[in-house]
Amino acid sequence: MTDVRAIAETAAPGGDAEFGDFVQLLKPRVMSLVVFTAAVGLLVAPVPVHPFVALTAILFIALGGGASGALNMWWDADIDAVMRRTARRPVPAGKVSGAEALGLGLALSGLSVIMLWLASNAVAAALLAFTIFFYAVVYTIWLKRSTPQNIVIGGAAGAFPPMIGWAVATGGVSLESMLMFALIFMWTPPHFWALALFMKDDYSKAGVPMLTVTHGRKATRAHILAYTILLAPVALVAGFTSIGGPLYLAVAVVLNGLFIAGAWRIWRRDEVMAEADGYAVEKRFFRFSLYYLFLHFGAFLAEAVLKSYGLGSW
Amino acid sequence: MSFRPDHELHKRRFGRNLGLAVVLALFVALMFGLTVVKVSNVGPIEGYDHVMQPQLIPQEEGQ
Fold this sequence. Notes:
The structure holds two protein chains of two kinds. By secondary structure, chain A is mainly alpha-helical. Chain A has helices at 4-10, 19-25, 28-43, 51-75, 77-82, 98-119, 122-143, 150-170, 175-198, 200-206, 211-214, 216-238, 246-268, 271-276, 280-308.
């Protein structure tokens, strides 16, 4: 049995994954959002950071986010295998073993926190460590399977990156960084609940207590509208702080108006109407939610650029 | 001695090893760059050790 072919035939699943499978464990699409929001948090901060230090810090914030993604895939392999959207992830697909995912997640968590500390400061590193803990333990292991509010509280993990970016530059936390946090935190529930409305079988099959499963779809539609209305003042208040300005405020007014209008349309519909057009309104709202977040943070960045030329801001 | 054609397993392992090599090389480059930036931006230190150098501390007036 020394022949390599014999080893290949008898190897346990996950023994010889490709490099790309390990990259997939880090949830590269989520990482790209982490990179963007962390970079904005860092760049809009009032303290300049050396470009190389900034690049290194953002890289390790993203790596920390990826590490928590690997830990999530390790723990959630059983429910990922049931859901159509996640069945092809490396662990449920048998390409990477659970132990490998756990090992990679833990190793990269430690590496990213230590490296962020060395590159920037202890506050940023502590925030990153807390983010990883929150996503992997509080959300994935505890909340996701136990409460329909999983998305609401778990959304905090995705909201930390701009706060970490700000901490890299300033070494602390401020009203501005908390508002960037709040913007993502309040945006997450309507974003995911819209997804849950048109991916309805996935969550119920997996037994994940999403709001659509526990409280019904009518209640979910009402929750989407409520959170979208609560999100608007957060987005608008940010416009009056040092990271905002006339341009940001104009963008926020338009986007929040459109977002509330979309949530209103979702709220007015029932399942019969949604089934009739293949959840077109819900899908459009979900797509728009991605632009919503991207354009808000893009506007923060634009304000920072304008400020550097003596324009914009208040 | 005969050379067998590569098994698909070899290709996967080669790709994985190559990927890891690239990541490690980038990590080394990143560490080098970060060290250069940190050392050149930290102020009046001397490069040969990490011991406090009293002669680098500005003298107060009247001393």
